[in-house]
Amino acid sequence: MAKFRHVKNNYSVLFLVMILLSACSDRAEENKSSVDPKPEPLVASTEVSAGGNIAAGQARAMVCRACHGPAGISSNDLWPNLAGQKKDYLVKQLKDFRAGIREDAMMAPMVRDLTDEHIADLGAYYSSLPE
Ligand code: HEC
Question: What is the pLDDT of residue 110?
């Protein structure tokens, strides 16, 4: 019963986070239009961060939320927060888990089928979240 309440609570947190995220992206849209219209070729979109796509990372992170939280802040002392972590660090850890250089029974199956592109997207997504 206590476990069930916990799960229900997680869904309401998830819901709040989705509202917050959509509010943030609305604001990003507004900001974009007030910025100098001259296009910057390499950083043309708020969604793309060098070597990773935030939106694609967010979609792929659905499975990660169970442990790392809906906004990259975990609810368990043994599961690290990922929000706001450096992107290159995240990418390195995920590749190390995939290569078996860093070992963890929970993380190993999570990264087994990830490509370098998936990992870059996840790194871009989690590093973009507020700590
Ligand atoms: C079943 C729970 C679980 C799931 C699901 C999970 N993780 Fe983890 N993750 C962990 C645990 C536990 C650790 C800490 C491992 C250790 O102690 O070395 C960890 C560590 C990490 C780290 C290293 C963080 C650091 O500070 O060094 C990254 C990055 C990470 N996870 C990303 C992900 C991503 C991306 C996903 C989804 C594809 C994911 N995790 C899914 C449990 C999980």
Answer: 98
